[in-house]
Amino acid sequence: MKRITILAMLFLAGFSGHAQFSYEAKPDYGRLEGITYDLEVQNKLYAVSLNNHIVVSYDNGETWDLLYAYPNTGARITNLRLLPGNENLCFSIINLYTEEDGIYILNIEDNEIISSFDAPAEPGVNITNYDIYDSEATTILLNVNTDTGDKVFYTTTGGENWTEVYDAADNNDVSIMTVAITPGNPSKLFMTRGGGPGDVDGGILISTDSGETWTQKLPGVILNPIDFKPSDANEIMVGTDMFDDDTDENLYRSTDGGETWNIVPAAWTHMVLDNIIIIKYHPYLEDVIYVLEENEIAFSENGGTTWQITAYPEEEYYYGLSLSLNPFDKEAILTTNMYPMRTINGGATITQVKAPFCTVNSVSTVKFGTTEHLYYGAQGGRLHKDYSTNVTDAYDIESPATFSPSANTIIADPLNEGRIFIAEGGGFLGGNLYVSTDHGATRTMLMSASGFTGLAVNPANDNVVYVVLDEWGMGSLNRLDITDLGAVVTTQVTTPGDGPIGGILAYTNMLVLAKNGTVYKSVDDGANWTELYTVEGATIADLSENPLNANGFGIATSDGVYTTADAGATWTTALEGIDARKVEFSDLNDGVMAVGVYNGQNTTDAYITYFNGTGWITVTPAEMNYMQSYTMDFNFVGDNINAYMGTIDMGIIRYSFPIEMLGTVDHSIGENKVVLAPNPASDYVTVHTSQLSAVKNVAVYSITGQKVLESAQPTINISHLSKGVYVVKAETASGIITSAKLVKE
Prior knowledge:
The chain contains no helices and 64 strands. The strands form 16 sheets. Strands 1, 51, 52, 53 and 54 form a five-stranded antiparallel β-sheet that branches. A four-stranded antiparallel β-sheet has the order 2-57-56-55, with no helix packed on it.
């Protein structure tokens, strides 16, 4: 199966220092996983997006920057953790489309993968969990799920050689829940067990000889999490798992390395699953312990003798996935199946950790004069950002616990400020089309159908709207008169040929329709159609009019971009041989065009043209940080092109690029010189050399010489810095270190 990706555009490596990059999604709905505290740098956090990115915060989660992008948009990073020594992060990869499943070691200082290894079983296995003993990742205990059940492997050679130490097929098909290596003793291994199909269940398996032999403790008790006391590895705590009527919910503790176990008294409340999910000893405050239960947070300051247990209603907090403790105090950050949460009082109260990284299912942007409006669908609702005020309003946001939030496709009306059309739902269950005249705050239903794929407003009468319906791939066109929203008049328009409709344009006296690979026009409101142009073997995905030419428009097809300046009488090939899905003409600069391109999971390019298509700028996947997106839109404002991408894990990415830079490259900027843009800056600044990809590390210093920020990315977030003058030092891959002054507004 091919993973389809839409990505844009906007600058060459040589121009990148002049582009502005920002995250535009409202941070209230951000999702992060595996949040992990750095053990040495105060307020530094690492986390994983919902796909292929690792982000970092230098201010305890107030703001976030991109740290690392895995170079495959079809992959997902999971199981993030900090290795002993605090120098390396490790994570596993899940990829449904390639055989890349494995574990990767990322050096924090260099922001580079220094080693990796595949799961030691047949390709396509799922890495369930693992434990790594040392900072170099030479000794590893790895649990994988295969077609025949769980298998556990052990290595002391960094994955060059593996020993199979457990096979569920030889152990009554009992699953392994968690594996662990004893701190300070790499030969002593632990495995907690779940359920099996027969009468044999649970228990904890312990080996003192690197997995050659095993002894079992707590037989029949379904177990999952395990943790060791940092100051004394002989103190171990495990917790019970779910779905076993014979297992009471309990914590068990051993103080003799696992030989004997006793129940830790704690008063749990009954809910649904009643399982212990996470046990975490504080890395330095040895008597502080956190435990995450289904809907409860347990906290002890006396080594587990007594507990403060706080139960939460399901809509407020439910099911923690991971937990990290601030090494400098008792604060904890929880990854949950809703939003990430923070507690400073042992779970008695929790607050949301905000980030602009969420799943966005549609983006539409429009301008009136120089004022831009951004509309997008996220977390089941509708959001509007007004760039004249920089305020984002959200409407009908669904609970983060919703299993499948509503998908809202929003189309902004270019003729009426504040009017948008909203397609909600679709497919087997059908969907509805709405209109709003107040930026989405309220809405009125216009019609129902199986799916909506396009819309155009008649410029001669803005109460006449042409709506493209999917109709299970057959395609149909409806004319809606919405003069009276209480009595919408719907008329089906007959269209030529069969198959899906790729787009519709409405002019004062003409309709232009794309169907399969052919463009048609009608001068009698769809009663009759004339074929204009056919791209053989291609499918048209988008139509766009040229606002600087009354007879000009373009088509984005699976075989390139084609334009006409005379209402379709003659055509020019603007870009050939690419799978284009979005095309937009500038309304300010003749000949400037933006094109978004669908490509395979590893080939995400995008283009921008200028001087009537005589030149193109291409952005590489690395320059786009391997973002995956299914929706994008463009605005041309003043001297800038603004590209908006709705991503599946990083919210909305905005690139703003000066048009004047399209035709000129400043060759005077050598590798021994740093340019900061913008400068002065208030939110983001990009460090530019003649080779952007050669920027290895960026550090920001106060005027007194104190390092206040460090990043391996050329674009950095400085919004949290105080106003004033700073020094920015950049190190290139060749080892050259140069600096420049930055003014923070």
